[in-house]
Amino acid sequence: SGPASGSASAPAPASASSPAPAADPDPIEIATDVRKVLFSTPVRETTLPPVAPASAAEPAMPAPVKLAPKTKAGSVLEPKGVDDKPAEPVADGGPVPLATHVAGLHAIAPRCPGHERVELALDAKGRIHLLGSAETMRAMPVVETWAHAHRELIDLACPHHEVDPRGVIVCHLFGAAPLDVADLHASRIHLHVLAPVDVAGKRGWYAAPLNDPPLPV
After folding, report:
1. Which domain CATH number covers 188?
2. What is the distance between the alpha carbons of residues 41 and 36, in angstroms, rounded to a whole number?
């Protein structure tokens, strides 16, 4: 009769054709291979340019020294190009009043504070005249306003002259270059030339009117 049912069957044997599992790589062999690759690569040589040796710093040349010219004992050196001639008319060590260059005017002492370079004078009718140079032209309106406001004080300061309490104030302008004031010829300002004249090493002064505006009656 056949085998009894329910008996256990034996497991089938492994096939002889199945591949064996791969072995893990050896770390020593890997390191050996890396060394071969690194040390077998040729190394390029780099040639650096030659470095010049540091030279010692050259000493700075001293600046040339100019010696003063030799002079004899007792001699005095005078600077060249110095003009000792006066820049304006002077007499007895002081400036000559501009009123002396205008006929009929008498110089007076009062001055406008802050504008002392503008001179004051009176004529025979008691009119106040202001006289200045081209440098004081901008101060003329200021002095004119001051003279109008202080006419009584000017009268008290000049007891030997009569001051017109309502007279028009007349302005005079002096300069050495007439062309500098050519545009003022038609104005009410009286223009005068006052220029130095040097003759034989001595300086004199030439004065003359440049225009003749009508004076108020």
Report:
1. 3.40.1350
2. 9
What's the rounded Cα separation, in Å, for the pair 163 and 203?
A: 36
In the beta sheet, which residues pair with residue 131? 119, 172
Structural domain of residue 163, as residue ranges? 90-209
Q: Which residues contact 189 (CB under 8 A, 6 or more apart)?
A: 140, 171, 172, 173, 213
**50 occurs within a structural domain:** no
What's the pLDDT tens digit per position in 156-173? 999 999 999 888 999 999
Q: What is the Cα gyration radius of the chain?
A: 57
Asked whether 129 and 123 are in contact (CB, 8 A), the reply is: yes
For the chain, the first-to-last Cα distance in angstroms comes to 180
pLDDT tens per residue, range 94-149:
789 999 999 999 999 999 999 999 999 999 999 999 999 988 999 999 999 999 99
106 is a domain residue: yes
pTM higher than 0.85: no
Q: What is the DSSP letter of 156?
A: H
Three-state SS letters, 138-193: HHHHHHHHHHHHCHHHHHHHCCCCCCCCCCCCEEEEEECCHHHHHHHCCCCCEEEE
